[in-house]
Each structure stands twice: as structure tokens, then as C-alpha cells.
């Protein structure tokens, strides 16, 4: 008689099962809907195939296709099928690696005779993949000794190199291993892989191959150049279509494209990669963003400081940035007889020097210092991306110096301030990410890191938002909370960071005199709210698809006289708007009215005001809001219109928010 085993579910409940029960059998016992959705299982924290036999006293969870973990398995399995399809279509091709990436996967190949994929090849490969999926080939795991593995992949040099790295200990995951695993889809195709995979190729099918690119083996330009195919895969056609729609929306909202179309900023080649210049309209947006932020910081008790763009290297030697951040720092300039000066990558050491400039008392604390400080980081050219990844950018940087007793209260206050200010700019869908001690890169004691991490965790939980752990993602001097914001199309952006630092005050020997007349070490909180002004502007441009709220729009009202005869009244309308503090212009060009309205719509001006003969007589305007799809409202009282737009600006709203509140004639 077969024996009985006991397994534990994630909710702590126990289930008794017959010996030999597989993870797939277990899913079926729980329910047919779960079995249909299952792709793999997690047993004692490790993912396994559904064909794996469960053991006594293990903790078992079923991973479904619509979970993030399930999607990764689907993408991994789809990558295998793509490799199989390529080898069918290009016999003799060499395949390298095919990892899962965010929202998709890729696979690298070397084609026979140095051939290259074209975009037209993608449809051929997709068709072959669908044929493989229709064949319902099971994914079957096998294990091999190193020699057997090398023989199995005798004509696949990239696979052999991976196996040799396992045996030599050069592979960090399998250092010194003696066994490698493969997955076979059929007798004709196998791939070197740890797994797990979906049960069979028929469980796949909702995918699309996206593009072809070049890549170097192991990412090293000295190695062989390969052909890379990127793809995406999802659990359903609905999920795939939603993602493809998001990509279309992202392209439409791309801040680089809109920045050029709306004449906001540019990246002249004469300046260099990753360095933006802001045109008048972009400069206006920056000024409004920064002015509002300054006002709110004053209300929150921050004091303003300024620091230079360069410094002698000694400052960053003391802080540890040269050692821990060195690759991102521009090369030094040698002046003053050989002294090395660096462009600053961070503002924090300068603020530390402000604190250290005189003796501090506990009565001076908390001391909140704030600066719009421009920093420079040597990002690799391949990762520079518009305003979101630049080499020169301005951080809204604040550093709070406080006592240990004040630490938690300041963190709570700062987090509320950060979330409130982000909401003022129209972002309101957040979760928090807690980044912990980076392995091998951190300074300071384990005890201090543990205390700092526990405090940040407690503060994060108090905010009532979802908390996600980022193990090992902290700065070299302390753990951090990152505010992750979702935009209008569901993408996640890392926004503000709040870092708790016990270490830099030690390195700079900061002190304050306590109520006991003894000297104590302050705690330092690093805080960037926008992250950088440039990146935050890019996020807002993409979030609003260029149609910024009225208070942020560089031009809030554009006045269009019907003809030259109405130009004088158009100018008086402009003066009325400008006197109320609105940013307004008059377009009295020779173009016909329809052409001028279209031009204003394309530049996403919140309010287009048309004035004709009736308006001159009645002191009214025709109002065409950006949100309008129908006829403009005629005969709107000029003063009422101005008052309504001023009120909309004060509420930090958009015409789209007030589509039903426009003044009636």
C-alpha cells in the first residue's frame, strides 16, 4: 500500500497526499481551475516543474500563469521554442543564451555564414514557433555529467563554454558543479537550462517577436558578435494586447518626441551625449516646477544652500564616493599644480560641510538643508536616454541632520511631505520599495544597517502603501525607501528616495552638543523628491502625453483674433490674462483661423480664445478648451473666463478636469 505524506500550503494549512503525488496532481486535487492555470510549483522556496514528485513535510505553492513568477516561466519557455524554431529554419545556427527580461525575453544566435536576421524574418520564426506549440511537445528535464554535457553540445560553442565555466568554478551560480541540466522539447531539440518550464509547448501561444538587434557574447565587444531577437509573451491574448497597446501609448507619449514637437528641449551634438539644453517653453516648465517646490520646502522648514559644480578629490575620498561610485564620476581635471578636481556626482558631501562649518547644538536640530544642485555622472552612452538617463541633471536634494531620538519622526514627516508633493503634480498611484544593504559594497557596521533598515521598514508600513523589498539595493552608506509611481498607462517609475545614513556623519566626524553638554553624532537623512528635475519633467510629459495641467503649461492661453480688425481687442484680452498672472500670447499671423486653431491644438495649449466682432462689442470671448471635441463656447464673459482659469491654476488642475465647469455664456 502506498504511503502518505503531508505538505503545508502557504496559508499554513496541511494536506495529506499519497506518496508519488506530483505538483501537477496536487494542483488538480485543489481544483480544476487551479490546475488549468498552473505552470510550475514552488516547493520549500524553490521553483520546480509540475511533474516533480512532492516530498513529506514540504511547503508547496502553485504558481499560476497570471502571476509575475508565472509570466517569467512562460517567457522562459517561449524563448526555448524560439531557439528551436530558429534552428529548424537555419540549420547549423549556434545558440547562446535566452534569458527572461522585463515584460519579455531575448535569445542570441550566430547564423551560418555570418548571416543576419531581418525584421521580415520575424514572421517566419513566429509561424514556426506556432507549429511547435501545436505539436504539444513536453518539456522534459534531464541531468548530465560535465563530459556528457560537452558531448551533447559538441557543435554548440557557447553552450560548451557555459558548461566549462560550471566545471571550473567560473560560473558564480554553479561554482565547482559536476552536473548540468537540460530540457528537451523533442528528440530533435534540447537546451542547457536550470528550468523550470511549463509542462508542454501547447501551454504557450500568446507572444510576439518585437525586433532584431546586434549583441556581443557575454556583453564584451572583444567577443563574437551575435544576432539577438527580442520577444514578449503573456498568459492570455488579452494580456498580450494590453501590453502591445501600452507600448503604442508609450511611443506616442515619448518625452523625447514630445520635447521636440512642443519645442521644450534639445540635445545638440555640439554639447555631447546626455546633456540637455532647455528652450524657453521647457525653461518655463522647469521654473514653475521649481518655484512651487521651493515654496513648499519653505513651508516645511527647509533652509536653502548652494554648492559649486566641482571639488577637489579629497572631498569624495572622505565620503567614499571615489571608491564606491568611481565608475560614474567623470575623469578629473588637474589644476593648481596637479590637484585633481572632479565634477560633482552628488550634493551630500557639500551639505555635510555646511553642517560642519560651525559647532552645532541639539537646539539647532533638526537642520533641513535644501538645494537644486546640478550633478554630473558618466553614464555609458548605451544607457543614456533623453531626460530620464542623462549625464548632467539637477537634483532637488535635501539633507536632514537630526538626533537619534528625532530620526523616526523626521522620516515620517519627510515621507508624508514627499507623497503629498508628488500628488500635487498629479501622481497618486504609489507603492514603496525598501532597499537593503548591498553585499560587498557597504560601509558601516551590520548593527547600524539593521537598525536603519528596521526604522525605514516601520516608517514605510505606517504609510499604508504596498511595500516591496529590494534586497541589496541600498546605497553604499545606508538603506533607502524609494517611492515607485505608476503613470497614466500603468508604467512604474522610481521617483523620490529617502535614505537613512549613520555612516557619512562618522566619516566626516560630525558632532552636536547635547542637552547633557556632551558631544554626540547626528543622524543624516538624504532625500531627493523629484529625483532629478529633468527626469521628473520627462515623467510628467509622458504621464500627461504632453498636455500638462494648466498651472504647469508653458503657455496657458492663446488668443486668436478672427481677422486683423480684431487685433486690438485681442491685445486687450492678452493684457487682462497677463494682469491676472496667466501666461498668454496672441497669434495674429496671416494664416486662416482654422490653421491657427490647429497649430494651437498641436502645441497642447490649455485654452484657445477666439475673438471676433461680437466679442469686441460685448467684451466676451469664444473659449475652446484643450479638452473640447465640439464647438467652442461663444460669448463667454472675459472677466469670468480669466477668473475661472486663475482658479483652475490655483487648484493645479487641467481643462480635462473641468470639462463640465466651463463658464456659460
Summary, kept brief:
The protein is an alpha+beta fold. The chain has an eight-stranded mixed sheet with strand order 16-20-21-28-25-24-22-23, sandwiched between helices. Strands 2-1-5-3-4 form a five-stranded mixed sheet, sandwiched between helices. Strands 6, 7, 8, 12 and 13 form a five-stranded antiparallel sheet that branches.
Feature tags:
665 residues; alpha+beta; 20 helices
Task: Explain how this protein is built.
The chain is of the alpha+beta class. The protein has 20 helices and 33 strands. Helix 3 packs across helix 4. It is globular. The protein starts with a strand and ends in a 15-residue tail after the last helix.
Number of helical runs?
Answer: 20
Mean pLDDT: 92
- The low-confidence parts are 172-176
Structural class: alpha+beta
Q: Biggest sheet: strands, sense, closure? A: 8 strands, mixed
Question: What is the general shape?
Answer: globular
Percent of residues in beta strands? Answer: 25-35%
Number of strands: 33
Question: How is the topology of this model organized?
Answer:
Blueprint: E1 4-8, E2 14-18, H1 23-30, H2 32-37, E3 38-43, E4 46-48, E5 58-64, H3 68-89, E6 94-95, E7 100-101, E8 104-110, H4 121-134, E9 140-145, H5 146-152, H6 157-168, E10 179-186, E11 189-192, E12 207-216, E13 225-233, H7 237-253, H8 255-261, E14 265-266, E15 277-278, H9 280-299, E16 303-304, E17 310-312, H10 313-319, H11 321-324, E18 333-335, E19 339-343, H12 348-356, E20 367-376, E21 392-402, H13 404-424, E22 430-435, H14 446-462, E23 467-470, E24 480-486, E25 492-501, H15 504-507, E26 512-513, E27 519-520, E28 523-528, H16 533-543, E29 557-561, H17 567-579, E30 584-586, H18 593-602, E31 607-611, H19 613-618, E32 620-625, E33 633-637, H20 638-650
Parallel strand pairs: 1-5, 16-20, 22-23, 29-30, 29-31
Antiparallel strand pairs: 1-2, 3-4, 3-5, 6-8, 7-8, 8-13, 9-10, 10-11, 12-13, 14-15, 17-19, 18-19, 20-21, 21-28, 22-24, 24-25, 25-28, 26-27, 31-32, 32-33
Helix pairs in contact: 3-4, 8-16, 13-14
Amino acid at each position: 500500500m502506498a504511503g502518505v505524506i503531508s505538505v503545508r500550503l502557504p496559508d499554513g494549512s496541511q494536506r495529506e497526499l499519497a506518496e508519488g503525488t506530483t505538483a501537477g496532481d496536487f494542483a488538480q486535487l485543489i481544483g480544476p481551475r487551479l490546475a488549468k492555470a498552473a505552470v510550475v510549483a514552488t516547493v520549500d522556496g524553490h521553483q520546480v516543474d509540475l511533474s516533480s514528485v512532492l516530498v513529506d513535510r514540504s511547503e508547496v505553492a502553485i504558481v499560476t500563469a497570471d502571476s509575475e513568477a508565472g509570466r517569467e516561466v512562460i517567457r522562459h519557455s517561449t524563448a526555448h521554442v524560439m531557439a528551436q524554431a530558429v534552428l529548424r529554419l537555419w540549420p547549423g545556427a549556434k545558440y547562446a543564451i535566452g534569458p527572461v527580461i522585463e515584460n519579455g525575453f531575448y535569445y542570441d544566435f550566430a547564423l551560418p555564414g555570418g548571416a543576419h536576421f531581418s525584421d521580415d524574418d520575424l514572421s517566419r520564426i513566429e509561424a514556426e514557433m506556432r507549429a511547435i506549440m501545436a505539436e504539444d511537445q513536453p518539456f522534459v528535464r534531464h541531468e548530465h555529467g560535465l563530459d556528457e554535457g560537452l558531448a551533447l553540445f559538441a557543435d554548440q560553442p557557447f553552450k560548451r563554454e557555459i558548461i566549462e565555466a560550471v566545471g571550473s568554478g567560473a560560473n558564480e551560480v554553479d561554482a565547482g558543479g559536476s552536473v548540468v541540466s537540460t530540457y528537451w522539447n523533442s528528440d530533435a531539440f534540447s537546451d542547457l537550462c536550470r528550468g523550470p518550464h511549463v509542462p508542454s509547448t501547447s501551454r504557450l501561444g500568446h507572444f510576439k517577436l518585437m525586433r532584431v538587434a546586434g549583441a556581443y557574447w557575454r556583453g564584451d565587444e572583444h567577443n563574437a558578435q551575435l544576432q539577438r531577437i527580442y520577444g514578449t509573451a503573456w498568459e492570455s491574448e488579452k494580456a498580450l494586447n494590453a501590453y502591445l497597446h501600452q507600448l503604442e501609448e508609450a511611443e506616442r507619449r515619448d518625452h523625447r518626441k514630445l520635447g521636440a514637437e512642443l519645442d521644450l528641449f534639445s540635445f545638440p551634438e555640439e554639447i555631447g551625449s546626455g546633456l540637455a539644453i532647455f528652450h524657453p517653453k521647457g525653461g518655463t516648465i522647469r521654473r514653475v516646477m521649481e518655484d512651487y517646490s521651493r515654496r513648499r520646502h519653505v513651508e516645511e522648514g527647509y533652509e536653502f544652500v548652494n554648492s559649486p559644480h566641482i571639488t577637489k578629490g579629497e572631498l569624495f575620498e572622505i565620503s567614499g564616493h571615489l571608491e564606491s561610485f568611481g565608475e560614474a564620476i567623470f575623469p578629473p581635471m588637474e589644476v593648481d599644480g596637479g590637484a585633481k578636481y572632479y565634477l560633482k556626482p552628488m550634493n551630500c558631501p557639500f551639505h555635510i560641510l555646511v553642517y560642519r562649518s560651525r559647532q552645532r547644538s541639539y537646539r539647532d536640530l533638526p537642520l533641513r538643508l535644501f538645494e537644486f544642485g546640478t550633478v554630473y555622472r558618466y553614464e555609458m552612452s548605451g544607457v543614456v536616454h533623453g531626460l530620464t538617463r542623462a549625464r548632467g541633471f539637477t537634483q532637488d536634494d535635501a539633507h536632514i541632520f537630526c538626533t537619534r531620538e528625532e530620526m523616526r519622526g523626521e522620516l515620517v514627516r519627510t515621507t508624508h511631505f514627499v507623497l503629498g508633493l508628488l500628488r500635487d503634480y498629479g501622481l497618486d498611484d504609489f507603492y514603496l520599495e525598501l532597499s537593503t544593504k548591498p553585499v560587498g559594497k557597504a560601509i558601516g557596521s551590520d548593527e547600524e544597517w539593521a537598525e536603519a533598515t528596521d526604522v525605514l521598514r516601520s516608517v514605510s508600513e505606517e504609510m499604508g502603501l504596498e511595500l516591496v523589498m529590494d534586497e541589496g539595493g541600498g546605497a553604499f552608506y545606508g538603506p533607502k525607501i524609494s517611492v515607485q509611481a505608476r503613470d497614466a498607462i500603468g508604467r512604474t517609475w522610481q521617483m523620490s528616495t529617502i535614505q537613512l545614513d549613520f555612516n557619512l556623519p562618522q566619516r566626516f566626524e560630525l558632532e552636536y552638543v547635547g542637552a547633557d553638554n556632551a558631544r554626540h553624532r547626528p543622524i543624516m537623512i538624504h532625500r531627493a523628491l523629484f529625483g532629478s528635475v529633468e527626469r521628473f519633467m520627462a515623467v510628467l510629459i509622458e504621464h500627461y502625453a504632453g498636455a500638462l495641467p494648466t498651472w504647469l503649461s508653458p503657455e496657458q492661453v492663446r488668443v486668436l483674433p478672427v481677422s486683423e480688425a480684431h487685433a486690438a481687442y485681442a491685445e486687450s484680452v492678452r493684457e487682462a490674462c497677463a494682469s491676472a498672472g496667466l501666461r498668454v500670447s496672441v497669434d495674429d499671423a496671416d494664416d486662416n483661423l482654422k490653421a491657427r486653431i490647429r497649430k494651437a491644438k498641436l502645441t497642447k495649449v490649455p485654452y484657445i480664445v477666439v475673438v471676433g466682432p461680437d466679442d469686441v462689442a460685448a467684451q466676451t470671448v469664444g473659449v475652446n478648451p484643450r479638452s473640447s471635441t465640439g464647438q467652442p463656447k461663444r460669448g463667454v464673459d472675459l472677466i469670468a473666463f480669466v477668473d475661472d482659469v486663475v482658479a483652475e491654476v490655483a487648484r493645479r488642475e487641467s481643462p480635462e478636469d473641468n470639462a463640465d465647469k466651463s463658464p456659460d455664456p
